[in-house]
UniProtKB/TrEMBL annotation, chains A, B:
<dbReference type="GO" id="GO:0004659">
    <property type="term" value="F:prenyltransferase activity"/>
</dbReference>
<dbReference type="InterPro" id="IPR000092">
    <property type="entry name" value="Polyprenyl_synt"/>
</dbReference>
<keyword id="KW-0479">Metal-binding</keyword>
<dbReference type="GO" id="GO:0046872">
    <property type="term" value="F:metal ion binding"/>
</dbReference>
<comment type="similarity">
    <text>Belongs to the FPP/GGPP synthase family.</text>
</comment>
<keyword id="KW-0460">Magnesium</keyword>
<dbReference type="InterPro" id="IPR008949">
    <property type="entry name" value="Isoprenoid_synthase_dom_sf"/>
</dbReference>
<dbReference type="GO" id="GO:0008299">
    <property type="term" value="P:isoprenoid biosynthetic process"/>
</dbReference>
<keyword id="KW-0808">Transferase</keyword>
<dbReference type="Pfam" id="PF00348">
    <property type="entry name" value="polyprenyl_synt"/>
</dbReference>
<dbReference type="InterPro" id="IPR033749">
    <property type="entry name" value="Polyprenyl_synt_CS"/>
</dbReference>
<protein>
    <submittedName>
        <fullName>Polyprenyl synthetase family protein</fullName>
    </submittedName>
</protein>
Amino acid sequence: MPIATFSEKIAQTLSTINYGDEPTELYEPIRYIMDLGGKRIRPLLTVLAHHLFEDEVDKALLPAAAVEVFHNFTLMHDDIMDQAPLRRGQETVHEKWNANTAILSGDVMLVKAYELFLGVQPIHLPIVLKLFSKCAAEVCEGQQLDMNFETRTDVSIPEYLQMITLKTAVLLGFALELGAVLGNASEEDRKNLKEFGIKTGIAFQLRDDLLDVYGDAAQFGKQVGGDILSDKKTFLLLTALEDSNEMHRTELHNWLGKMVANPAEKVKAVTAIYDLLDIKAKTEAKINHYFHEALEHLEHVNAPKERKEYLRALALSLMERNN
Amino acid sequence: MPIATFSEKIAQTLSTINYGDEPTELYEPIRYIMDLGGKRIRPLLTVLAHHLFEDEVDKALLPAAAVEVFHNFTLMHDDIMDQAPLRRGQETVHEKWNANTAILSGDVMLVKAYELFLGVQPIHLPIVLKLFSKCAAEVCEGQQLDMNFETRTDVSIPEYLQMITLKTAVLLGFALELGAVLGNASEEDRKNLKEFGIKTGIAFQLRDDLLDVYGDAAQFGKQVGGDILSDKKTFLLLTALEDSNEMHRTELHNWLGKMVANPAEKVKAVTAIYDLLDIKAKTEAKINHYFHEALEHLEHVNAPKERKEYLRALALSLMERNN
């Protein structure tokens, strides 16, 4: 079965969900954000994890869709908090409607995500909802840490890794563990799949940090150096601050929080310090470290090698992406 | 057992919940809003409904607490949307912290409400979460309708009753049905308790509308005529618009949306029209109608009369409240 078949089943499932009709002001924004698309990576992880243990993937489709609905709920609320004007190139919900609509439609999306999980077999329901609720709270914790970091100047690298783990990686871990639970996998296989997801998620986020500075502007699809201009505490900046001598650290601190007339100058200056300190290679090493660990966990999962290949290929494609 | 014993058990249960620790910015607002107090009517309904069918109420305490956590989640998010400065006489969360904190802490509260429900017996879990999710979505629908009504001038009385049913009454209905489900009540008893809650909730909200105009300012604890000044589409206003002749209707419409130099004058003028049209008696009749229906549903519940007396007395106290 080509991977596109799994993706089509997921798209089909998502298209059949009826979130609700009245009042339209509440439900229309849900259909809008869900229809913006995206790569549907999380539900794909659930379905592919399930496929490791069972031939028939239909049972995993609604819970997989629930993960995607939850993910889009977090995007809707995060976009309010980050005052983001665009999402996938289109107006964000709070821009197209208003913040109140984005708050309330988001709330009902979280409820709908739980409702979709109610479709799992009763035997799996308690564990699925326990794992999901833990993950959902952690994603909120990650978003809170991310906001806290904006005004902090003493963020450590371990703190940063913890933040991206909570904000981004645990949901990938949950998506995979969910598929394993529904496929009646062993405790050990569940844990290995979860760790595969978490480590892949961390590597994925670090790669995002890297591409923001060293990516190809045209392919990356956003302004190169955006993180530098917004003084974002990325892995690159935190590593640079840690590895630099007194002079470079002072120079970096001088750029942080500075209103600049010429943005390109700031990007160029900070990138020059990164280059001096070999930050690109150090970040790549860290990415490879996590990605290698992720693949080791997948390696240990007791499932047919050809089925695990789907997940390995998907993780690989995430790492090689240019956007 | 005096009713205070049930209340104490609920207070005790709520005080032992650990919502989470880190980051404190996320969890502190939850403790703050939960500690603002309130009469804990909803969890009391759950426990009293459960007590109709079982002597031991301990099993109902955590789910009852979940209802209260959910209720406070809706308050936290509604207060952002309504830009309310105060809640129970204290600063609202978005005022004390900021809107982002109130959004995110609210989100995690909704997750925590679901987590608390996971403590019910596995046999009850699917139905409890199905009923709760339906109710939670309805509460969001009610809030959306309430916001829609702010800018509409053609709200009908049935639409208004539908809005308060969703925004306020269904949660009381769910709280009661929850207790019944946990007490293994019959389908019929469940439905009657639910309807008792919904009808009581509608009567309660109509009484709130009435007290805003005809309440004792000192006892009511808020400005008399606040709804008139904010042009709120209450049962009183909608009934007045429906029952008035051309002249009074024009006069009412002239006051709506009018910026007034002298607020007391507007309150006095609108109240005078209400008096002419006998709106107080008409509202009281509607309240009595719903309250009577509520008590009929309670009457039909197959449970010891002396146990049902707790619920009757509680509903009565809600109707006679001056604040």
